[in-house]
């Protein structure tokens, strides 16, 4: 855990097209108090790992990108809610970026029992995807991996963006010049990560799945 001036982050991507509307900077935080069976990124569950960064420096970096929005994932973003609220506020002092956030908690829980930091972060979020990943309810839905998870539009910023069939947004697969492969997005089928790694025959650089794999 950190004070609000620092964040423990697991990874980031400056231009993701499958985790929210448009092209988004995605920030995966390190540490999660939940233990969902089938979590696609178990290496991001322990607290104390990852990289510790200064919130204000990260905000300046994100604000300087061409991203349409910011997506917060992990790990559990609301485990570092105060620092993330500060991050979003600092970014929006420069650019009015859209903010989407994944969480394993329910919106009702965060709003009523999450505490002041959670409420502060919620007040800055445009789209919240909530609920734990339940493998028995696996589904290929827009930005979610199980049918219990819900998309909440907390503001009207994206009112016109969620029209059409509620189907998965697909995966973004990237091959680096050294041949390493990484993928981003919500796994469309259970066990996708293991199958993908087996199919390509190499170890991906870093799986960058989503809270929807809860
Ligand atoms: S899927 Fe998300 S909420 Fe569940 S254990 Fe993994 S990081 Fe935590």
UniProtKB/TrEMBL annotation:
Alphabetically ordered keywords of this record: 4Fe-4S, Iron, Iron-sulfur, Metal-binding, S-adenosyl-L-methionine
Keyword Iron-sulfur assigned: yes
Q: Name one GO molecular function term.
A: ribonucleoside-diphosphate reductase activity, thioredoxin disulfide as acceptor
Q: Which cofactor does it need?
A: [4Fe-4S] cluster
Q: Does the keyword Metal-binding apply?
A: yes
Q: Output this protein's name.
A: Anaerobic ribonucleoside-triphosphate reductase activating protein
């Amino acid at each position: 855990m950190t004070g609000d001036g620092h964040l423990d982050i697991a990874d980031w991507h400056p231009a993701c097209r499958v985790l929210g509307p448009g092209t988004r900077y995605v920030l995966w935080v390190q540490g999660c108090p939940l233990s969902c069976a089938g979590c696609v990124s178990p290496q991001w569950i322990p607290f104390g790992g990852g990289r510790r960064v200064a919130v204000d420096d990260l905000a300046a970096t994100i604000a300087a990108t061409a991203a349409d929005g910011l997506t917060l994932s992990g790990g559990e973003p609301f485990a570092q809610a105060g620092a993330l609220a500060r991050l979003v506020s600092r970014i929006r002092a420069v650019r009015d970026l859209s903010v989407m956030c994944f969480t394993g908690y329910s919106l009702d829980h965060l709003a009523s029992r999450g505490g002041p930091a959670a409420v502060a972060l919620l007040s800055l979020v445009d789209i919240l995807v909530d609920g734990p990943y339940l493998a028995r309810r696996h589904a290929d839905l827009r930005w979610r991996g199980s049918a219990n998870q819900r998309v909440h539009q907390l503001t009207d910023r994206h009112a016109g963006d969620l029209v059409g069939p509620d189907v998965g947004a697909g995966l973004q697969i990237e091959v680096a010049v050294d041949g390493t492969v990484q993928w981003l997005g919500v796994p469309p089928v259970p066990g996708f990560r293991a199958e993908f790694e087996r199919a390509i025959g190499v170890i991906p650089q870093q799986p960058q799945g989503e809270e929807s794999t809860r």
